[in-house]
Protein backbone atom coordinates (compact mmCIF):
# COMPACT_ATOMS: atom_id res chain seq x y z
CA UNK A 1 0.00 0.00 0.00
CA UNK A 2 2.89 2.35 0.67
CA UNK A 3 3.95 2.06 -2.97
CA UNK A 4 0.39 2.27 -4.36
CA UNK A 5 -0.24 6.01 -4.51
CA UNK A 6 -3.85 6.37 -5.66
CA UNK A 7 -6.75 8.47 -4.38
CA UNK A 8 -9.22 5.57 -4.39
CA UNK A 9 -7.04 3.13 -2.40
CA UNK A 10 -6.43 3.50 1.32
CA UNK A 11 -3.09 5.28 1.25
CA UNK A 12 -0.73 3.90 3.88
CA UNK A 13 -0.61 0.70 5.90
CA UNK A 14 -2.20 -0.85 8.95
CA UNK A 15 -0.64 1.91 11.06
CA UNK A 16 -2.22 4.99 9.49
CA UNK A 17 -5.51 5.26 7.58
CA UNK A 18 -7.72 8.10 6.44
CA UNK A 19 -10.83 8.65 8.52
CA UNK A 20 -13.74 7.10 6.60
CA UNK A 21 -16.98 7.36 8.52
CA UNK A 22 -18.76 4.37 7.01
CA UNK A 23 -18.57 1.60 4.44
CA UNK A 24 -20.68 0.68 1.45
CA UNK A 25 -22.39 -2.23 3.20
CA UNK A 26 -23.74 0.04 5.93
CA UNK A 27 -24.95 2.55 3.36
CA UNK A 28 -26.64 0.03 1.07
CA UNK A 29 -28.50 -1.60 3.95
CA UNK A 30 -29.48 1.60 5.76
CA UNK A 31 -32.61 3.72 5.39
CA UNK A 32 -30.70 6.50 3.61
CA UNK A 33 -31.58 7.36 0.00
CA UNK A 34 -29.33 5.67 -2.57
CA UNK A 35 -30.01 7.19 -5.96
CA UNK A 36 -28.74 6.11 -9.36
CA UNK A 37 -26.26 8.99 -9.21
CA UNK A 38 -24.85 7.66 -5.95
CA UNK A 39 -24.53 4.22 -7.53
CA UNK A 40 -22.83 5.69 -10.61
CA UNK A 41 -20.35 7.71 -8.55
CA UNK A 42 -19.49 4.88 -6.17
CA UNK A 43 -19.00 2.47 -9.07
CA UNK A 44 -16.79 4.96 -10.92
CA UNK A 45 -14.51 5.38 -7.91
CA UNK A 46 -14.32 1.63 -7.34
CA UNK A 47 -13.38 0.95 -10.97
CA UNK A 48 -10.90 3.83 -11.04
CA UNK A 49 -9.07 2.37 -8.06
CA UNK A 50 -9.30 -1.14 -9.48
CA UNK A 51 -7.84 -0.05 -12.83
CA UNK A 52 -4.80 1.31 -11.01
CA UNK A 53 -4.46 -1.84 -8.91
CA UNK A 54 -4.76 -4.17 -11.88
CA UNK A 55 -2.19 -2.17 -13.84
CA UNK A 56 0.21 -3.03 -11.01
CA UNK A 57 -0.58 -6.73 -11.61
CA UNK A 58 -2.34 -6.94 -8.24
CA UNK A 59 -5.62 -8.79 -7.62
CA UNK A 60 -7.59 -7.74 -4.55
CA UNK A 61 -9.50 -11.06 -4.21
CA UNK A 62 -11.83 -9.90 -1.44
CA UNK A 63 -13.93 -7.06 -2.84
CA UNK A 64 -17.24 -6.70 -1.02
CA UNK A 65 -19.25 -3.71 0.25
CA UNK A 66 -17.83 -3.85 3.78
CA UNK A 67 -14.30 -3.49 2.34
CA UNK A 68 -15.20 -0.30 0.47
CA UNK A 69 -14.82 2.62 2.86
CA UNK A 70 -16.93 5.75 2.38
CA UNK A 71 -16.73 9.19 3.97
CA UNK A 72 -19.30 11.94 4.43
CA UNK A 73 -18.43 13.42 1.01
CA UNK A 74 -19.35 10.17 -0.78
CA UNK A 75 -15.68 9.48 -1.45
CA UNK A 76 -14.94 5.76 -1.68
CA UNK A 77 -11.66 3.97 -1.03
CA UNK A 78 -10.79 0.32 -1.49
CA UNK A 79 -9.61 -1.22 1.77
CA UNK A 80 -8.59 -4.53 3.37
CA UNK A 81 -5.71 -5.75 1.24
CA UNK A 82 -5.06 -8.79 3.41
CA UNK A 83 -5.99 -11.17 0.57
CA UNK A 84 -4.38 -9.14 -2.24
CA UNK A 85 -1.74 -10.94 -4.30
CA UNK A 86 0.22 -10.43 -7.48
CA UNK A 87 -0.66 -12.39 -10.60
CA UNK A 88 0.66 -15.96 -10.38
CA UNK A 89 3.87 -16.60 -12.28
CA UNK A 90 4.54 -20.27 -11.51
CA UNK A 91 2.53 -23.49 -11.04
CA UNK A 92 3.45 -23.58 -7.35
CA UNK A 93 2.22 -20.03 -6.79
CA UNK A 94 -0.90 -20.80 -8.78
CA UNK A 95 -1.72 -23.77 -6.53
CA UNK A 96 -1.18 -21.63 -3.42
CA UNK A 97 -3.43 -18.95 -4.90
CA UNK A 98 -6.15 -21.54 -5.54
CA UNK A 99 -6.11 -23.26 -2.15
CA UNK A 100 -5.68 -20.11 -0.08
CA UNK A 101 -8.67 -18.23 -1.48
CA UNK A 102 -11.35 -17.81 1.20
CA UNK A 103 -13.14 -14.59 0.24
CA UNK A 104 -16.81 -14.10 1.05
CA UNK A 105 -18.87 -16.61 -0.92
CA UNK A 106 -21.53 -14.15 -2.13
CA UNK A 107 -18.95 -12.14 -4.10
CA UNK A 108 -16.75 -15.05 -5.19
CA UNK A 109 -16.18 -15.57 -8.90
CA UNK A 110 -17.46 -18.89 -10.29
CA UNK A 111 -14.02 -19.95 -11.51
CA UNK A 112 -12.91 -20.13 -7.88
CA UNK A 113 -15.77 -22.49 -7.04
CA UNK A 114 -15.49 -24.51 -10.24
CA UNK A 115 -11.72 -25.01 -9.89
CA UNK A 116 -11.05 -23.60 -13.35
CA UNK A 117 -7.42 -23.55 -14.38
CA UNK A 118 -6.95 -19.81 -14.94
CA UNK A 119 -7.21 -17.11 -12.31
CA UNK A 120 -6.97 -13.54 -13.52
CA UNK A 121 -8.00 -10.02 -12.62
CA UNK A 122 -11.47 -10.99 -13.86
CA UNK A 123 -12.02 -12.39 -10.36
CA UNK A 124 -12.30 -8.82 -9.09
CA UNK A 125 -14.65 -7.77 -11.90
CA UNK A 126 -17.12 -10.49 -10.89
CA UNK A 127 -17.07 -9.12 -7.34
CA UNK A 128 -17.62 -5.59 -8.66
CA UNK A 129 -20.62 -6.85 -10.62
CA UNK A 130 -22.12 -8.40 -7.48
CA UNK A 131 -21.57 -5.14 -5.59
CA UNK A 132 -23.06 -3.14 -8.47
CA UNK A 133 -26.18 -5.30 -8.46
CA UNK A 134 -26.44 -4.98 -4.70
CA UNK A 135 -26.41 -1.20 -4.98
CA UNK A 136 -29.12 -1.25 -7.66
CA UNK A 137 -31.54 -3.41 -5.65
CA UNK A 138 -30.24 -2.85 -2.09
CA UNK A 139 -30.06 -6.61 -1.60
CA UNK A 140 -27.39 -9.21 -2.29
CA UNK A 141 -27.51 -10.69 -5.77
CA UNK A 142 -26.24 -14.21 -5.02
CA UNK A 143 -26.64 -14.83 -1.24
CA UNK A 144 -25.80 -18.53 -1.29
CA UNK A 145 -26.21 -20.50 1.93
CA UNK A 146 -23.44 -22.90 0.95
CA UNK A 147 -21.22 -23.83 -1.96
CA UNK A 148 -23.87 -25.75 -3.90
CA UNK A 149 -26.58 -23.17 -3.26
CA UNK A 150 -24.22 -20.44 -4.47
CA UNK A 151 -23.72 -22.20 -7.79
CA UNK A 152 -27.46 -22.77 -8.11
CA UNK A 153 -28.24 -19.08 -7.59
CA UNK A 154 -25.68 -18.06 -10.21
CA UNK A 155 -26.99 -20.53 -12.77
CA UNK A 156 -30.59 -19.46 -12.10
CA UNK A 157 -29.61 -16.04 -13.49
CA UNK A 158 -26.77 -16.75 -15.93
CA UNK A 159 -28.06 -20.08 -17.16
CA UNK A 160 -26.05 -23.25 -17.70
CA UNK A 161 -22.34 -22.63 -18.35
CA UNK A 162 -21.10 -23.22 -21.88
CA UNK A 163 -19.61 -26.63 -22.75
CA UNK A 164 -16.17 -25.01 -22.82
CA UNK A 165 -16.55 -23.79 -19.23
CA UNK A 166 -17.88 -27.15 -18.05
CA UNK A 167 -14.98 -28.99 -19.66
CA UNK A 168 -12.53 -26.63 -17.96
CA UNK A 169 -13.88 -27.46 -14.49
CA UNK A 170 -11.00 -28.99 -12.57
CA UNK A 171 -13.01 -31.05 -10.08
CA UNK A 172 -14.68 -34.12 -11.56
CA UNK A 173 -17.48 -34.16 -8.97
CA UNK A 174 -18.34 -30.53 -9.68
CA UNK A 175 -18.35 -31.16 -13.43
CA UNK A 176 -20.63 -34.18 -13.00
CA UNK A 177 -22.98 -32.18 -10.78
CA UNK A 178 -23.36 -29.38 -13.33
CA UNK A 179 -23.89 -31.84 -16.16
CA UNK A 180 -26.61 -33.59 -14.14
CA UNK A 181 -28.71 -30.43 -13.92
CA UNK A 182 -31.38 -29.63 -16.51
CA UNK A 183 -30.27 -26.94 -18.98
CA UNK A 184 -31.22 -23.39 -18.05
CA UNK A 185 -31.42 -20.29 -20.23
CA UNK A 186 -30.05 -16.99 -18.90
CA UNK A 187 -32.54 -14.56 -17.40
CA UNK A 188 -32.50 -11.04 -18.94
CA UNK A 189 -31.11 -8.48 -16.54
CA UNK A 190 -34.21 -6.37 -17.18
CA UNK A 191 -36.16 -9.18 -15.50
CA UNK A 192 -33.78 -9.44 -12.56
CA UNK A 193 -33.86 -5.65 -12.02
CA UNK A 194 -37.16 -4.39 -13.46
CA UNK A 195 -37.15 -0.65 -14.03
CA UNK A 196 -33.38 -0.28 -13.66
CA UNK A 197 -31.36 1.99 -15.92
CA UNK A 198 -30.64 0.23 -19.23
CA UNK A 199 -27.04 1.44 -19.44
CA UNK A 200 -26.44 0.25 -15.88
CA UNK A 201 -27.75 -3.20 -16.77
CA UNK A 202 -25.63 -3.24 -19.93
CA UNK A 203 -22.50 -2.72 -17.86
CA UNK A 204 -23.63 -5.19 -15.21
CA UNK A 205 -24.07 -7.85 -17.87
CA UNK A 206 -20.51 -7.28 -19.09
CA UNK A 207 -19.17 -7.97 -15.59
CA UNK A 208 -21.18 -11.04 -14.62
CA UNK A 209 -20.24 -13.75 -17.10
CA UNK A 210 -19.16 -17.33 -16.47
CA UNK A 211 -16.17 -17.07 -18.80
CA UNK A 212 -13.48 -14.92 -17.13
CA UNK A 213 -12.11 -13.88 -20.53
CA UNK A 214 -15.55 -12.55 -21.52
CA UNK A 215 -15.78 -10.15 -18.58
CA UNK A 216 -15.10 -6.50 -19.13
CA UNK A 217 -11.87 -5.10 -17.65
CA UNK A 218 -11.78 -2.24 -15.18
CA UNK A 219 -10.25 0.05 -17.82
CA UNK A 220 -12.92 -0.82 -20.38
CA UNK A 221 -15.69 -0.48 -17.79
CA UNK A 222 -14.61 3.11 -17.14
CA UNK A 223 -15.25 3.83 -20.82
CA UNK A 224 -18.78 2.40 -20.71
CA UNK A 225 -21.57 4.94 -21.43
CA UNK A 226 -23.03 4.45 -17.94
CA UNK A 227 -19.92 6.15 -16.50
CA UNK A 228 -19.45 8.76 -19.24
CA UNK A 229 -20.40 11.55 -16.82
CA UNK A 230 -17.26 10.94 -14.76
CA UNK A 231 -14.86 9.22 -17.16
CA UNK A 232 -11.67 11.20 -17.73
CA UNK A 233 -8.80 9.20 -19.28
CA UNK A 234 -6.32 11.88 -18.19
CA UNK A 235 -7.33 11.41 -14.55
CA UNK A 236 -7.42 7.60 -14.36
CA UNK A 237 -3.74 6.68 -13.94
CA UNK A 238 -1.99 3.34 -14.14
CA UNK A 239 0.68 2.17 -11.72
CA UNK A 240 4.25 1.86 -12.93
CA UNK A 241 6.12 -0.32 -12.37
CA UNK A 242 4.06 -3.36 -11.31
CA UNK A 243 4.44 -4.44 -7.69
CA UNK A 244 7.03 -7.06 -6.75
CA UNK A 245 5.50 -9.62 -4.40
CA UNK A 246 8.77 -11.43 -3.70
CA UNK A 247 8.62 -10.16 -0.10
CA UNK A 248 5.40 -12.09 0.44
CA UNK A 249 7.23 -15.40 -0.05
CA UNK A 250 9.83 -14.59 2.61
CA UNK A 251 9.60 -16.47 5.91
CA UNK A 252 9.44 -13.71 8.54
CA UNK A 253 10.29 -14.17 12.20
CA UNK A 254 8.54 -12.18 14.94
CA UNK A 255 11.58 -9.93 15.27
CA UNK A 256 11.78 -9.38 11.52
CA UNK A 257 8.11 -8.36 11.45
CA UNK A 258 8.75 -5.83 14.24
CA UNK A 259 11.68 -4.42 12.29
CA UNK A 260 9.52 -4.14 9.17
CA UNK A 261 6.81 -2.23 11.07
CA UNK A 262 9.38 0.20 12.48
CA UNK A 263 10.84 0.68 9.00
CA UNK A 264 7.38 1.52 7.63
CA UNK A 265 6.82 4.08 10.41
CA UNK A 266 10.18 5.70 9.71
CA UNK A 267 9.44 5.79 6.00
CA UNK A 268 6.04 7.38 6.73
CA UNK A 269 7.67 10.27 8.59
CA UNK A 270 10.28 10.74 5.87
CA UNK A 271 7.56 10.88 3.20
CA UNK A 272 5.44 13.24 5.29
CA UNK A 273 8.36 15.64 5.53
CA UNK A 274 8.73 15.57 1.74
CA UNK A 275 12.17 14.01 1.67
CA UNK A 276 13.11 12.50 -1.74
CA UNK A 277 13.31 8.74 -1.94
CA UNK A 278 17.11 8.66 -2.07
CA UNK A 279 17.37 10.55 1.22
CA UNK A 280 14.38 8.99 2.94
CA UNK A 281 16.23 6.04 4.48
CA UNK A 282 18.87 8.29 6.06
CA UNK A 283 16.29 10.75 7.37
CA UNK A 284 14.07 7.98 8.70
CA UNK A 285 16.58 7.18 11.43
CA UNK A 286 15.86 10.56 12.99
CA UNK A 287 12.09 10.23 12.75
CA UNK A 288 9.77 10.89 15.66
CA UNK A 289 8.90 7.20 16.18
CA UNK A 290 5.66 5.35 16.18
CA UNK A 291 3.49 7.49 18.46
CA UNK A 292 2.04 9.96 15.98
CA UNK A 293 1.79 7.39 13.19
CA UNK A 294 -0.16 4.99 15.39
CA UNK A 295 -2.71 7.69 16.17
CA UNK A 296 -4.33 7.45 12.73
CA UNK A 297 -8.02 6.67 13.02
CA UNK A 298 -9.65 3.74 11.24
CA UNK A 299 -13.03 3.76 9.56
CA UNK A 300 -15.95 4.10 11.95
CA UNK A 301 -19.49 2.99 11.27
CA UNK A 302 -21.86 5.87 10.64
CA UNK A 303 -25.12 3.93 10.93
CA UNK A 304 -27.95 5.98 9.54
CA UNK A 305 -26.08 9.27 9.75
CA UNK A 306 -27.10 11.47 6.83
CA UNK A 307 -24.05 11.43 4.54
CA UNK A 308 -25.82 12.49 1.41
CA UNK A 309 -25.94 15.67 -0.61
CA UNK A 310 -26.20 16.46 -4.33
CA UNK A 311 -23.44 14.84 -6.37
CA UNK A 312 -21.67 17.18 -8.73
CA UNK A 313 -18.47 17.48 -10.75
CA UNK A 314 -15.99 20.17 -9.81
CA UNK A 315 -12.29 20.88 -10.46
CA UNK A 316 -12.13 17.98 -12.86
CA UNK A 317 -13.27 15.33 -10.38
CA UNK A 318 -16.67 14.16 -9.19
CA UNK A 319 -17.67 14.81 -5.61
CA UNK A 320 -20.53 15.39 -3.23
CA UNK A 321 -21.48 18.35 -1.06
Describe what you observe in this structure.
- The structure is a single chain.
- This protein has 321 residues and is mainly α.
- The chain has 2 domains: 22-243 and 306-320, Transferase(Phosphotransferase), domain 1 (Orthogonal Bundle); 250-288, no CATH class.
- The protein is built from 14 helices and 7 strands.
- It has helices spanning 24-28, 36-55, 91-100, 110-113, 122-137, 147-158, 163-168, 172-180, 189-192, 198-207, 218-222, 254-272, 277-284, 290-293; strands at residues 22-23, 58-59, 68-70, 76-78, 85-86, 311-314, 317-320.
- The strands form 3 sheets. Strands 1-3-4 form a 3-stranded antiparallel sheet.
- Strand 6 and strand 7 (317-320) form a beta hairpin.
- Helix 2 packs antiparallel against helix 5.
- The radius of gyration is 21 Å and the shape is globular.
- The protein starts with 21 loop residues before the first strand and ends with a strand.
Amino acid sequence: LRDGNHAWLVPCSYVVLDLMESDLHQIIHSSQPLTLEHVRYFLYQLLRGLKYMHSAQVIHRDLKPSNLLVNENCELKIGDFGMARGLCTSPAEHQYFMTEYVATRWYRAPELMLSLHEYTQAIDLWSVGCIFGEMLARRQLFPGKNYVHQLQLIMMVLGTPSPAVIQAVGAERVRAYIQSLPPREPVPWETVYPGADRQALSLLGRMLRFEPSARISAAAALRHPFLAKYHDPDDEPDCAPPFDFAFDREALTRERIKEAIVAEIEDFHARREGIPGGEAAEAAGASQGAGEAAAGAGAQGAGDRDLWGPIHRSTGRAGAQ
